[in-house]
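Predict the assembly for these two chains.
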Amino acid sequence: MAYGPHTPADREAMLAALGITSVEPLFADIPVAVRADGLALPEPEPELELAARLEGLAGRNRVDLASFLGAGVYRHYVPAAVDQILLRGEFYTAYTPYQPEVSQGTLQTIYEYQSLLAELTGLDVVSASHYDGAAATAEAALMAVRATRRRRVLVSRAVHRHYVETTRTYFAAAELALEELPTTADGTTDLAALADALADAERPVAAVLLGQPNAFGLLEPMAQAAELAHAAGALFVAVVEPVSLAVLAPPGSYGADIAAGEGQPLGIAPQYGGPYLGVLACREALVRQIPGRLVGRTTDLEGKRAFVMTLRAREQDIRRERAASNICTNQALCALAATVYVACLGPHGLRDVGALGAARARELERALAAAGAPRLHRAPYLNEFAVHVPDAARVHAALLEHGVLAGLPLARWYPDDPQLREALLVCATEVTTTAEIERFAAALAAVRAGGAPADRTGSVAAAGTPASVTTAGGAS
Amino acid sequence: MSGAASGSLDSRDVGSLGPRSAVGPQLQPTLDELSRPGRGGGKIPHPPADALAGIPASALRDAPLALPELNEPEVVRHFVDLSRLNYSVDGGFYPLGSCTMKFNPKLNEWAARLPGFAQLHPLAPDALAQGTLQLLWELEGLLAEISGMRAVTLQPAAGAHGELTGILMVRAYHESRGDHERREVLVPDSAHGTNPATASMAGFTTVEVPSAPDGGVDLDAFRAALGPRTAAVMLTNPSTLGLFEGRVVELLEAIHEAGALAYMDGANLNAILGKFRPGAAGFDVMHINVHKTFSTPHGGGGPGAGPVGVGEKLLPFLPSPRVLREDDGTFRLERPGERPTSIGRVRAYQGSSGVFVRAFAYIRAHGGSGLVEVSEDAVLAANYLKSRIAGAYAIPYERPCKHEFVASGGPLHEATGVRTLDIAKRLIDKGFHPPTIYFPHIVDECLLIEPTETESLETLDAFAEALLEIAAEARREPELVTSAPHTAPVRRLDEATAARQPDLHWRAMTGAESPCPT
């Protein structure tokens, strides 16, 4: 067996100690009627061959295109130090810090994570993390339902579609109402519709959820929305992207009671969907409603400062069916990645990431407008926006042949919306280069003119021998 | 906390933490205490001054960001120092029952970081994602064979998330048949706490079923609890006592006769690879903790992943999107709305692919024969270890265990006053991570010990010796045990104050007002 240490003599010694000559008696309690006889799986693969198989599979993915795809998952430069720390076996091969005396490393890093995210969100309490942004959003909504004892939640249609869909899945089980708020022509949530929805005294609202930036990359009138929600006795939940919080107002400053979001941009690789980092934060008053692990500072019996998992009476292993959630794990290693990432960049570096992304996005906006794809919405944006492109799905596919991943066709998320059906959601970050932007604009102009790619070296059609990868960093 | 938080040079105070030591772990200052205004920089080019000009001031942060300012050498040393305060599988024996802390192969870490896997965007068109899609599709097939299930979804992010996914499918199944009266989920009293918590989250009421004296489910009590209101029964097999549920055939028959579905908590799959395939035996749905059985690293508490296998009945309800293979051999994700019977999404994207690269590598490295050997060795090691400590600790269930076993410190407690918690802490002094303690709740002064198949005979013997020594110490010098640990970086913690006056983040840091480092 690949990683087993037992020699035949070791096995014999153990069997002899048990007074048996084979392992069969140890499995005799499995009724014969349901006992399996091995597994119909391939033979063991030696490491050399397995490594080649894995490299082959990785090589069949294409990650060398000029990518303008964000939509909730963003490419960032990750300092090399981050992955070096993640590869320390003391961190990644440890388990949940149930024994705090031999887990201070994990416990302190979670405390530091909580502290860094408390500063970024402007809120008091940050959970040790959830599965991803969608799960954190769903948990935020459920938390508001528990805290207010109301069963109706309003979510802007400009919150990430997958977060809304996930919340809907969670809500269906508990028979809670989730209603979507429309957006106005400028792309932000319709506050008049929000006021109307909140005015229904028969069906009081537990929470109002808005994204900042929203699913179109636009900046929402968060303070006004929070005020409306609070006036109706509802909680206000901000769905945020944590890197943006280096430059944008923190949720605590505009009255959010809960913030939820995807922590992937904080030093975690895209990895085709995970593992990621669900960020969940709240005001102090809600501390006993927040699901998931919390780490607190305390002392040991000699008075030395130390850290420990705390307020555990909310958790499933103690409260069982009365727990705040069934969540058991957190995403500790992903939270560690975020902690090291923020520590490496510091306040100035993180702000530079946010501001440089915004600057690159403006460069992208100008280039695409010049190529005939103007912005779709008027509201201000940070580093992601929608552009109007007739026949967007076909153009998107054609651009792949030019080695350009032209963001997300919004038809995928809003198939019934005639305006959004002709739109691409594109983003830029600090890793986006002027050369990539020029390539995108030139390819777009060519595709719209009906031209074939001039240079097919980076195209999907030319795939087969993948080009070397251009993105930096590699936290996982 | 101390005055350390203001961040100025003069107030630096890590006081009682003691001097930095070249050998042996010492407690460390926090990042805010290490921060010095003006440190850091050099990572990101400076943006143009007007980068944020188009954004209204009301949407921007108006106070400086109060994050620590550090340079890279300090950051690296800080986290290396912290890592040294951790116990880990790479560092030693971690016999944490129900957690399967086996060795994490290093090849798998390398593989998950291959740029083709790591840098792939989850919304990338299928044409760009053929490698990962193929890996996920093949892994689903491998897990289906192992579990005996018809199909597998890789979407759930953890075991508990898999439970929720499974129970939501159960709910959808009954609803689809117009069977709206099934509001109860039966759970044995030895179950993981996640089982009843999951049932509640999915809108069901939990009915707890007592265990029989032999550790199995009490069949009479079980039959009495089953009925037209039962939606599902959640069984862990082997149970959390490390015992195979010998009445599993009768239980499954009774469940299906009552019109309910059988959920298998796959937390203990490591014991039964190639010996018992739950789907083939009649379970309708199960989750698999790949961070246990298939060695994806626990990461200090996550990330894990919790694929769910289903039989024919639940096939229509699997979360979307599924990974599909076309006739031409290409792979794609299911499109939105393609399968209206689906329960929908349970997370943002299609699964924790980074975890699954590792699980796939683990399964391929072992192959079918290797996985059977995994279970045989895990079970042999557990029975051997049990036999080694049986004289000093009570063994509540005498029959052969599977991959883990429960021991009780009850008699030792009565004789010496030393509790299981003390035994656990004393093990730390002897260089071992403690086993799981006080779970399952139905065993007095419980120790749940799981050695896994990757620990050598020498390690098993050394651990047995340590437990025997502690039992002797408890009789000879109980204070030595009750005051343990003595050699860890910290002594026992004041958990009561931590809960009464929660201190969940450093508070007093001020914003970084120093000029941008150039």
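Residues 1-24, 512-518 of chain B have pLDDT under 50 and may be disordered. The radius of gyration of chain B is 26 Å.
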